[in-house]
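Comment thread on ticket #2218

A.B. wrote:
> Attaching the input chain for the structure job we discussed in standup.
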Amino acid sequence: MGLLTTFIETGVFAFMLTFTRVGTALFLMPGIGDTYTPVRVRLYMALGLTLVLSPIVSGYLPETIPSNLLMFNLIIAEFVIGAFIGMFSRILMMALDTAGMAISMQAGLSNAQIFNPAFASQGSIFGAFLIISGMMLIFATDLHHLFLLGIMHSYETFPIGEIPDKGGMAQLVSHAVSSSFSTGIQMAAPFIVITTLLYIGMGVLARLMPQIQVFMLAIPAQITIAFLVMALTISTGLMFWLSFYEDGMYFFFSGK
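C.D. wrote:
> Ran it. Output below, let me know if you need it in another format.
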């Protein structure tokens, strides 16, 4: 009876610590952690993944149950690590939102805001479209497996009981944000170039024929050209972002 009690206590402790990190990361993971995914579905997936990973990560867990204060500190540390993992993957998704906002500004549709389900807030039309397309590509190409594998390997990068390096975490987040912004601008580069050429042409036309209402001609042409460029470059842009997302996740979880 004593062995059974010890096994139950140790198993509950290990499951609780594993669920704190895994559940927090999954609740922030792109796709599964979005607002349009029911909370009950996210909870079931977190519990199922924790049940699978508990035997695998049992070697990284403390052998004895710590005191109440130490256990509380362990749970807080696991929560912070799980939130850091989930937020890093979501920062990489912000490249699509940045690209969509830049494209909307170049297309003259920056004021046309719609609900963006990935961030649970208002966003640009092109941004919502790119994020939904990127989310579909992540699951279609099985890149979410890299995220789940990274959670398991995170026990080597962030051992249980050790306080994460706050300076290193902040530096990694700043690098991810800058890289995400740079990738978004690169995806919107064709629109920026073509719109700049359109503005130059409209400026020359306004100087040559002042009686023409250039603004009335520019807006429809600007929107039409933006959709044409989108049709021609959407596949290349999404593949470019997909490569960036894969490299970012690999860099984060490999620690190289």
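A.B. wrote:
> Thanks. Noting for the ticket: Helices lie at 2-28, 39-53, 68-107, 125-140, 144-157, 166-187, 189-208, 214-254.
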